[in-house]
Amino acid sequence: MIKRAVNDLAIFGGEPAFAHRLHVGRPNIGNQERLLDRIRDLLDRRWLTNQGPLVQEFETKICELLGTKHCILTCNATTALEIAIRALGLTGEVIVPSFTFVATAHALQWQEIAPVFCDIDPQTHNLDPRCVEALITPRTSGILATHIWGRPCAINELIEIATRHRLKLLFDAAHAFGCSYRGRKIGNFGAAEVFSFHATKFLNTFEGGAVVTNDDELAGKIRLMTNFGFAGYDQVIYLGINGKMSEPAAAMGLTGLECLDQFVAANRSHYKHYQEALADVPGVQMIRYNEAEQNNYQYIVLEIDELKTYISRDGISSMLHAENILARRYFYPGCHHMEPYRSHFPHAGLLLPETEQLTQRVLSLPTGTAIEARDVDLICDLIRFVVEHGAEVSQKISTLPGNG
Ligand code: T4K
């Protein structure tokens, strides 16, 4: 539904543009029949978890796809990060971005390792290696870097810093399944990399994750730790927890793997579409993917410059929500503003000027196989309309109850 006047916007009482809600993070679901066949088989086999045949097959296929030696599937990426952190022997302080999902920091803090928040490069939204170097202290044991939006961080620079300072380097690759860095698949860098297969991710297993590594010894440790430390019947040789992936989850993952090309094609087509439709909207910039690399295009992220739009990111977000477009402010407000970090490091923001600014500007939009080209058209029309009437919309929003 095209809006002709500001009063037509749903936020001011007009009809919402969409009758149903359009979510960010709507799951990509592969061939349902293939999935149901696999589920029927696993029920017939009565083998539901504990390194069953589907988990083994999924691990093998991931290694083949990424060119990595080892893949250990887990129940989610947060647990995978915790296990990898412990297996690597990280202690004391670990340098992490604040501009990431809070699980990256929590995986450290949960084990009483202090996350030291580091600023980002505003161009890439990833850790700025120059800032990393400045934060290294005698207590620093590692760097945990996120490939945010699936765009690889400055991997070579981080390897160089980690090597020079004898630090362990672990990547939170939750967003980066299927992406590449200088032609090589993410999964092959640092000591290990961790993927998330949460429902909202490019490839999902309902809930799930994986640690991938080319280090035999580390892989052995991680595998033990994921299964209570069991090396065989009645034989526990290590401290471990239950981090295992179940067979139904692996069934979903294997089914998704067969449809990866279809997922990328849908994401890429929406990405191109958004890019074209928003190209000349003043103050609205979309993040770009490097077309020379492999990308999963799973995130459509805008940066809103309110000096040019005359309406804040939050104003645009409220307007979209009223129209049933549930845009998200990922990763606002930054981990350093969340508990327990806010209490532990009340002044962290002073060292994170780029993070502070970016968290005020970002807005993630719906994409993926759950939406269609005409949805993208309508979302873009609305954003364009609101920006064209930015000052007026802003002024009217401020008069709504609760905004005074
Ligand atoms: N590192 C990074 C960089 C991460 O981004 C994440 C997870 C992790 C580590 C940890 O991975 P896991 O341990 O989760 O494997 C969501 C996800 O729960 C979280 O996995 C993800 N990052 C994060 C970016 O997004 P919330 O708090 O935003 O979830 P929620 O419930 O608000 O849902 C997000 C959107 O997805 C909503 O618009 C609704 C939609 N949705 C969600 C689910 C679960 C659906 O349409 N269908 C669904 O089934 O965290």
Could you walk me through the main structural features you see in this protein, from its secondary elements to its overall organization?
It is a single chain. The chain is of the alpha/beta class and 404 residues long. It has 2 domains: 6-27 and 260-327 and 366-398, Alpha-Beta Complex (Aspartate Aminotransferase, domain 1), CATH 3.90.1150; 32-258, Type I PLP-dependent aspartate aminotransferase-like (Major domain) (Aspartate Aminotransferase, domain 2), CATH 3.40.640. Helix content is 39%, strand content 15%. The chain has 15 helices and 16 strands. The protein has helices spanning 32-45, 53-66, 77-87, 102-109, 129-134, 155-164, 216-226, 247-257, 260-278, 306-309, 313-322, 341-344, 353-361, 373-388, 390-398, and strands at residues 22-23, 70-74, 93-97, 114-118, 140-146, 168-172, 180-181, 184-185, 192-196, 209-213, 230-232, 235-236, 284-286, 300-304, 325-326, 362-365. Strands 2-10-9-6-5-3-4 form a 7-stranded mixed sheet, with helices on both faces. A 3-stranded antiparallel sheet has the order 13-14-16. Strands 1-15 form a two-stranded parallel ribbon. Strand 5 (140-146), helix 6 and strand 6 (168-172) form a beta-alpha-beta unit. Helix 2 (53-66) packs parallel to helix 8, helix 3 (77-87) crosses helix 4 and helix 3 (77-87) packs across helix 7. The chain starts with 21 loop residues before the first strand and ends in a 6-residue tail after the last helix. The model has no long low-confidence stretch (mean pLDDT 96). Bound molecules: ligand T4K.
